Amino acid sequence: MNLTQEDWIAQLEADENAVILDVRTEDECDEGIIPNAINIDIHKGQGFISELEELDKSKNYYVYCRSGARSAKACEIMNELGFDNAYNLLGGMLDWDGEVVAP
């Protein structure tokens, strides 16, 4: 499900079962991440799938990348793997005006 930045933040802040997932490359993450995000690079292919399968499917995942394209794909993959709640941040880090921290 695609959410605007405002909706993504509002839903995230109200969600006690939330996990923030950054699907960018390590180099991109080195430029800064959304606080408390975990990084699983979608470009790892099967490695990405394997790491996703280790996650708790009962959690709600707030997924982002640089522009929103890779995270949308990640949400699709997560849905196929049985994750019920994966939320894509529209516009990704390019449009993000919230807090950014060093990984």
Automatic annotation (TrEMBL):
Gene3D superfamilies (UniProt xref): Rhodanese-like domain (3.40.250.10)
Annotated SMART domains: RHOD (SM00450)
Source superkingdom: Bacteria
InterPro entries linked: GlpE_sulfurtransferase, Rhodanese-like_dom, Rhodanese-like_dom_sf
Residue span, Rhodanese domain: 14-102
Short name of one Pfam family: Rhodanese
Protein name: Rhodanese
Lineage start: Bacteria, Pseudomonadati, Bacteroidota, Flavobacteriia, Flavobacteriales
